[in-house]
Amino acid sequence: MVARVRSVGENITDETRLQALEDCTESYIAVQKASEELKTIRSEHSSRLKRWKQNGITIESLKRAIKDRMLDPDEVIREEHEYCRFRALQNMPTIQQDLMALWAQPMDVDQARQDEIQRNRWRDDGALAGRNGVDRAANPHEQGSEAHQCWDLGWLHSPERIAKEMKENPAAAVVDTSRARPSSRRRVTKTTDEQIAAE
């Protein structure tokens, strides 16, 4: 028994063991730290959801809207269309007409908020393009315009694109490490919707 135990790892030096211990301890601590941070973020997110629920917001719709923002708009529309068709065939024959009447109502927000919504839309389009492998130079907006800048910012910060490029060619990956805000007449806001996934 003792001989067999001694033979296990007999070609490994204590220096190698120490290196392995230090290396993996470092990564373990990082995992634990990230886990604690995630718990804090989830707790904060849950608190926010509860607060808005108390204010009358339909939470399931809110969470779905946050998730859908990260999807291709065409995909969301197809899903909504299919859902409406199923409900129409089930027991809500007028659902499409009823929803059209509701959607015809204009947004009850001021112009500043509408502009912010549009900027976020441009950023989301850029992030989606990056995720789908579209080249950065394919920005569809006029060079120098706010739309161009927002789209480019979204493309730069697309996590899926960054991860893919880092995996395929780390040295050539395009990653924005600048902390400076983009220069424009209006600041491009970054909402917490993208940072905190709906539970």
Q: Detail the poorly predicted runs.
A: 179-198
Percentage of residues in DSSP E strands: under 5%
The figure for the number of domains is 3
Number of DSSP helical runs: 8
Number of strands: 0
Radius of gyration based on Cα positions: 25 Å
Q: What distance lies between the first and last C-alpha atoms, to the nearest angstrom?
A: 52 Å
The best one-word shape is extended
Secondary-structure element order, as H and E?
Answer: HHHHHHHH
Q: Could you describe the largest sheet, including whether it forms a barrel? A: none
Structural class: mainly alpha
Tell me briefly what this model is.
By secondary structure, this protein is mainly α. It has helices at residues 2-7, 14-54, 59-68, 73-90, 95-103, 111-131, 146-156, 159-168.
Write up this protein.
63% of the residues lie in helices and 0% in strands. It has 199 residues and is mainly alpha-helical. Helix 6 crosses helix 7 (146-156). The longest helix is centred in the N-terminal third of the chain and has 41 residues, at 14-54. The chain is extended and about 75 Å long. The N and C termini lie far apart (52 Å).
Topology (elements, then pairings):
Blueprint: H1 2-7, H2 14-54, H3 59-68, H4 73-90, H5 95-103, H6 111-131, H7 146-156, H8 159-168
List keywords for this structure.
mainly alpha, 3 domains
